TrEMBL record:
Pfam families: ABC_tran. The keyword Magnesium does not apply. Residues 30-260 form the ABC transporter domain. This is Putative ABC transporter ATP-binding protein. It comes from the Bacteria. PROSITE patterns: ABC_TRANSPORTER_1, ABC_TRANSPORTER_2.
C-alpha cells in the first residue's frame, strides 16, 4: 500500500511562487532516530536513522517489502510510529499531525484524481481543502498548470489524459498548498521513457526552486538523476547511505562487463571467470564481471575460451550497489 492523500482544512498560505511555501523551517526537515514500525508480529521498519536536509532530494531505495512505504507513511503522519523518535518540520507527528499535513505535499504511487472532474477542477477543488480563497485557488491552478505544461488541457476530463499527463497533474495537485516538503511515492512507475524524463525535468525544477523532496523508487537511473542523497533499505533496515556517486565508488568497480551464454544455467560459467575481475556475480540470465577495465575483462574471458552469446560493458550503477549489499537485484 502506498502513501495516502489525506484531505483536511488548514489556513491559507501566503503569496509566492506556485510551489514554494513562504514558511521557513529551522534545522532538519525530517529527523528520525531508531524509527520503528510494526504490524502485529511483523516489524516493517527496524530502527532506522534518517536526517533529511532543507532543499535536498532524498531517496529511499529498495525492493518491495523493504520498509520504504511504511517509513513514508510515518513521515506523512498517516501511520503512527511504533518506536523511536520522529520529527517532521521540527514537529512531533503524534501531537502535531494536522499542522504537519498542512505543510506537506503528497504524490501517491497510485493516481487518486477525480476522473469526473476537469483538469482545472481537480486543482481548484483540492485547493479549497486547504482554505484557499476562490480567487487564490484559481490563480494557483493557473500557475501550476503552466508549470506542469497542462494549460492547454485545463478543460479536459482526467480520463482523457495519458498516463504521463495524469502523473504531472497529480504532482501539480500536491503543490497546490505551496508545501515545505514534497513526498513522492514511486512517482514514475508505469510511465514510458519520454514521460519519465518529462517528469524528471519538473522535479529537477522544483529542487532548484528550493523544494525539499523525499521519494521512493525502484529505478536506479531515477535515483541517480534526482537524489542528492539516498538510503538503501532491505528487510526494514538501512544497509547503506550516501550520495549516488559515493555509494557506487564505495561498493563497486568503475565498470561492469555483462556476459550472457544463452538460455542456460550461468553458474558453471562463473568458475571459469574467477580471477578475471575483482568480483563475479551470477544472475539467472547473465554473469557480471566487476572490473575497472570492462573491455579487458571481456577480452580475458575470450582468452580463456569462453564465448558468450552477447557481452557489453557499462558503468557501475546503484543496482550493482544493491546486488553487492543484499545478494539480489532490486526487481527480485
Amino acid at each position: 500500500m502506498g502513501l495516502q492523500v489525506v484531505k483536511f482544512r488548514a489556513g491559507a498560505f501566503g503569496m509566492g511562487p506556485p510551489w514554494i511555501s513562504v514558511a521557513g523551517v529551522a534545522g532538519s526537515m525530517v529527523c528520525a532516530q531508531g524509527l520503528r514500525k510494526g504490524f502485529g508480529d511483523v516489524e516493517a521498519v527496524k530502527g532506522i536513522d534518517v536526517d533529511v536536509r532543507r532543499g535536498e532530494v532524498f531517496g529511499f531505495l529498495g525492493p518491495n517489502g523493504a520498509g520504504k512505504s511504511s517509513t513514508m507513511r510515518m513521515i506523512a503522519t498517516t501511520s503512527p510510529v511504533s518506536g523511536g523518535t520522529l520529527r517532521v518540520l521540527d514537529m512531533d507527528p503524534a501531537t502535531h499531525g494536522p499542522q504537519i499535513r498542512a505543510r506537506l505535499g503528497v504524490c501517491p504511487q497510485d493516481d487518486t484524481l477525480d476522473t469526473e472532474l476537469s483538469v482545472r477542477e481537480n486543482l481548484t477543488v483540492y485547493g479549497r481543502y486547504f482554505g484557499l480563497s476562490r480567487a487564490r485557488v484559481r490563480m494557483r491552478a493557473d500557475e501550476l498548470l503552466d508549470f506542469v505544461r497542462l494549460t492547454d488541457r485545463a478543460t479536459s476530463r482526467v480520463d482523457q489524459l495519458s498516463g504521463g499527463m495524469r502523473r504531472r497533474l497529480t504532482i501539480a495537485r500536491s503543490l497546490v498548498n505551496a508545501p515545505d516538503l514534497l513526498l513522492l511515492d514511486e512517482p514514475t512507475t508505469g510511465l514510458d521513457p519520454q514521460a519519465r524524463h518529462t517528469l524528471w525535468d519538473q522535479l529537477y525544477r522544483l529542487k532548484h526552486s528550493g523544494v525539499t523532496q523525499i521519494l521512493t523508487t525502484h529505478y536506479m537511473d531515477e535515483a541517480e538523476q534526482l537524489c542528492d542523497r539516498l538510503v538503501v533499505m532491505d528487510h526494514g533496515r538501512i544497509v547503506a547511505e550516501g550520495t549516488p556517486a559515493e555509494l557506487i565508488s564505495r561498493y563497486c568497480t568503475r565498470e561492469v562487463a555483462e556476459l550472457r551464454f544463452g538460455v542456460v544455467d550461468h553458474e558453471p560459467y562463473a568458475a571459469g571467470l574467477q580471477g578475471i575481475a575483482g568480483r563475479v556475480e551470477v544472475l539467472p540470465d547473465r554473469v557480471l564481471l566487476y572490473a575497472d577495465d570492462g573491455e579487458a575483462a571481456l577480452a580475458a574471458a575470450h582468452h580463456r575460451g569462453l564465448t558468450p552469446t552477447s557481452g557489453l560493458v557499462r558503468r557501475a550503477s546503484l543496482e550493482d550497489v544493491f546486488l553487492h549489499l543484499t545478494g539480489r537485484t532490486l526487481v527480485d
